[in-house]
Prior knowledge:
Layout: E1 7-13, E2 18-21, E3 27-41, E4 44-58, H1 59-65, E5 74-88, E6 91-105, H2 113-118
Parallel strand pairs: 4-6
Antiparallel strand pairs: 1-3, 1-5, 2-3, 3-4, 5-6
Amino acid sequence: MTDINSVTIIGRLTRDAELKYTNSGLAISNFSIAMSKSIKQNDQWVDTTIFINDLSLFGKRAEGLNQYLTKGQQVAINGCLDVDNWEQDGKKRSKLKVHISDIQLLGGKSASPQQRSLGGGNAQEFEDDIPF
């Protein structure tokens, strides 16, 4: 039996995306999002926020969309989970990351209808290989 590794998240960017390039020239846009959630505590509903700190978008989509991935922008993402492992001061460390396979800009502080249409995963000019 094969396990399924898939996530879908809608949230708002907590900071502007940061565009970097690997030594081989692959563009990577990294950002964080926050999403609101209501939970019931002592017979009352309380709003809480969940932060997801490590999301990565790759290739041409990273380059094309990076200028629109600004703090406060609402996005819908589909992707998969990955783990970064490293050693620091003799201790093994790891962190969970989300590698984005599809992203859409939703209503938010900076998304116009034209910008939102750039976010679709079907846009030919933004298709490329995703390194996972």
